[in-house]
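Deliverable D4.2, example record:
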Amino acid sequence: MNYKLISVLLLPMLIVGCAATPTNTTPAASTGGNTTDSSGLMNTGIGAITGAAAGAAIGAAIGGKNKAKSAVIGAAAGAVLGSGLGYYFDQQQQQLTAEFQKMPELQTTPVVVKKDNQDLAIITPGNIAFASGSSVLQTSVYPVLDKIIAVLKQSLTTRVTISGHTDSVGKPDLNLQLSKSRAESIAKYFIQQGITSSRIQAFGYGDTQPIASNDNDQGRAQNRRVEIKIHAPQ
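Output generated by the structure prediction step:
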């Protein structure tokens, strides 16, 4: 059998996978953070290519004497899975953004949902989740976390990383501990709501990863945040 020919015939499948997903037309959050620059095409396309490469490698590894055939079949399967995951993340970005925009408490300090390479990142302002200097979750953040939990329950193979961040006010070691405690509080809530602990990692970074200037109130407010990233299965 001519496996080179089969490989050529499979290439249009990858291209179709890239083109089949519509561009995200959901309005961006008021902070301007939720932009997609045609991510509907980009994310699905990258997922298809990545999936194809991984599938080909796995197929070749287990194919025995028929490595070429197994690699081709693996590439096709991987492309389908990869593009499907990309489309899934596109849809979840749109869904979460729409849900958050409906919440009155998020109108002045929106939760931003955006793509970060192959991850889906949800950036929650610190004042929504915690009182100043506290790592105890405020009940007002529960609806936000519950929406994220619903996404995690839809795909049991995705993983989540929770990162706590502070501004530069106060001692660095105290900021580091506070940011870690806040991330762990959210992780604990996720586990209480049925997310397996093995899917979750929690870290604190203190004031070491600012996204805005710490020289003014507006910048410091942006730096006080919790980032929740949903990762594709490895």
